[in-house]
Amino acid sequence: MSTPALELADIFRLHGPAYRQAHRLPLPQHRLMQAIENCRTPALGGVVEWCDRCQFTHIQYRSCRNRHCPKCQGEARAQWLQQRQAELLPVEYFHVVFTLPEPIANIAFYNKKAVYSILFRAAAETLLEIAADPKRLGVEIGFFAILHSWGQNLHFHPHLHCVVPGGGLARHGKRWIHGRRRFLLPVRVLSARFRRRFLQALQSVYEQGQLQFFGEQENLRDPPSFARFLAPLEKVAWVVYAQPPFGGPQHVLEYLSRYTHRVAISNHRLLHMENGQVSFRWKDYRDRQHPDKVMTVAVDEFIRLFLQHTLPTGFQRIRYYGYLANSHRIGKLELCRALLATASSDLLPTLSACCQRAAELRDVDRSRCPRCGVGELSRYLLPPPWRSGWAPPDTS
User: Residue 249 sits in which domain range?
Assistant: First the structure.
């Protein structure tokens, strides 16, 4: 893939210092900007590779490894996909999306950790309970959920992507029950249960004083006002989107290679920056005839739009539930494969291109010179400037 002409790091390097001076940023956003600015530059140090035969010299600067950085997600995504490919089953998979209505999203903007946690819990409980209902499937399912907080236009739009196998373990654990062919679970039932679960949890968190309100939301600090705020939300339908099955394990990996470890905007969507404005590509899914569009905003507004998607420190944006929960994942997966009469090795050939690329990179002999192929590479530590006085410890 070609190197983008404009990168997020370029925007931050040129306009980040002025933006930080003009705005009082939370510490996580401040660190995020500096990490992206310094990523793969001398500021983080690196390694010098030198060939003893052809004198080939190459400097590889270190990555910032920040999960919001567009340049640091490729390797992390490949490693995660390789781990997931061993957990896939030879069944159809479904994609279910739980979306927060705009009034709740406005509360989430200032209470990300609390509301995101409720979103995960309410969606997971909804899927697990309805799947286990004997009137539905009556099975234990296993799935993982991925949090996204953005839309294509970078506006704040919290939603949860869930990838669910088409079936699950029967109650007694002695057979696998396949789900419905078109939709795994009824969407209207999912929507109503998710709405009830979420609002109950939000009310509980509110009563515990864990929510903060600012600006136009300050009146919600008053319990009667908060109750009036929630009342209309109990009657409207919440958006739960469920796709028909999108194929077996190989299709799942191809899908996940596009969705996991995604950041709010990739460098390849950035077009140009001039006259204090940034232009980027986005898709308007409501316009089916002409979905591809270009948005141009002031640099400060672009930085604000990006930073609003900063995750709370330490918050896990990919979580696992049901028989994929960490506590009993290995045993339950082996049981599923036994019931489906599929050995783990049968699924190994279904590597996505992303996983194959990671495997190829791992097999490369990094001790040989990439130019002449004969000489041996010597590697020397290149410390960052703030450690310019660094030297190896004296062991004599």
Answer: 74-264+315-357
% pLDDT > 70, the chain: 88
How far apart, in whole angstroms, are the C-alpha atoms of residue 49 and residue 60?
A: 8
Closest CA to 352 of 90, 165, 85, 93: 85
Total structural domains within the chain: 2
**Beta strand spans in the chain (E):** 46-51, 57-61, 93-99, 139-140, 142-150, 156-165, 167-170, 176-178, 240-242, 270-274, 277-283, 292-298, 318-322, 377-382
Whether 107 and 246 share a structural domain = yes
In this structure, the answer to whether residues 188 and 336 fall within a common structural domain is yes
Element (H, E) at 329: helix 329-339
The mean pLDDT of the chain is: 87
CATH of the domain at 146: 3.40.1310
pLDDT band at 2 (very low <50, low <70, confident <90, very high): low
Dihedrals phi, psi of 297, to nearest 5 degrees: -135, 160
